[in-house]
Amino acid sequence: MEKTEKTERLFGLLGKNISYSFSRGYFANKFEQLGLQDCAYVNFDLPDLSSLNEVFEKPNLKGMNVTIPYKEDVIPYLNELDATASHIGAVNTIKPTSNGFKGYNTDAYGFQKAIEPHLEAHHTKALVLGTGGASKAVIYALQQLQLEVASVSRDRSKANYSYEDLDQTVLKAYTVVVNCTPLGTFPNIVEKPQLSYENVTEKHILFDLVYNPEKTAFLTEGALRGAKILNGLKMLELQAEKAWEIWNS
Predict the structure, then answer these.
(1) Going by C-beta distance under 8 Å and a sequence separation of 6 or more, which residues neighbour residue 61?
(2) Beta carbons within 10 angstroms of residue 50's beta carbon
């Protein structure tokens, strides 16, 4: 920890139970490749946000990423949001400015750039599984791509559909399905959203924000039926690069 405190430029990931995190390894490699010996990236693994101001007070803090479960809860602690984060209602990137801490959302950018090359003319409607902060960014990105979007939750009052509603008719119409839940994340790799997978076809794209394992149970079911499958790794790399751009602008 001593090295971190003395580092001239400190970056980090805010979240809860994030020892598995992609970001720390990604940025450690980035700093090494760029020869940035004055930079460090650490996990700010907080049980709640009551001690967040202690993190904000670190004089060498130059930027933060935000992950589950704080993408929405962190907003009241910020002084300002950029237009995209404000519209989405979720933040995954924070930058210290002369006016305080400003929140951004690079998840939407990362997801949009990751899925866009794979969309075909028949991909006009998308189902987004889950209703957390990540799903809000995904919905925003899909709408930017001119897709009609419906949300799915176990609680029908929070979404357009419940999982029980996803019958053959619905899945025939919605040929893009995005898993924004943590189901299937290591070590719980047999878990998957409760879809009628028998109604998935080669016309579908199944996109899982989960990246560990590389091929989740959700994606495996899609592959068995000829669907195009994509995991969250490319999205993560793209959103991380956009965050780096923001911190250094």
Answers:
(1) 10, 11, 12, 55, 96
(2) 8
Residue with structure tokens 């400015």? 97
Q: Of the candidates 22, 60, 45, which has an alpha carbon nearest to the alpha carbon of residue 239?
A: 22
The full set of domains in the chain, from first to last, is 2-105 (3.40.50.10860), 109-235 (3.40.50.720)
pTM reported for the whole predicted model: 0.93
Residue type, 86: S
Mapping DSSP to helix (H, G, I), strand (E, B) and coil, where does residue 205 land?
A: strand
Residue 203 tokens read as 């016309």
Would you name the residues annotated as active-site residues? Answer: 71
- Helix (H/G/I), strand (E/B), else coil: 169: helix
d(CA 70, CA 18): 12
For residue 87 the two structure tokens come to: 């519209």
How far apart, in whole angstroms, are the C-alpha atoms of residue 220 and residue 90?
29
Instruction: Please say whether the beta carbons of 247 and 226 come within 8 A.
Output: no
* Per-residue pLDDT tens listing for the chain (249 residues): 445 556 789 999 999 999 888 999 999 999 999 999 999 999 999 999 999 999 999 999 999 999 989 999 999 999 999 999 999 999 999 999 999 999 999 999 999 999 999 999 999 999 999 998 899 999 999 999 999 999 999 988 899 999 999 999 999 999 999 999 999 998 999 999 999 999 999 999 999 999 999 999 999 999 999 999 999 999 999 999 999 999 999
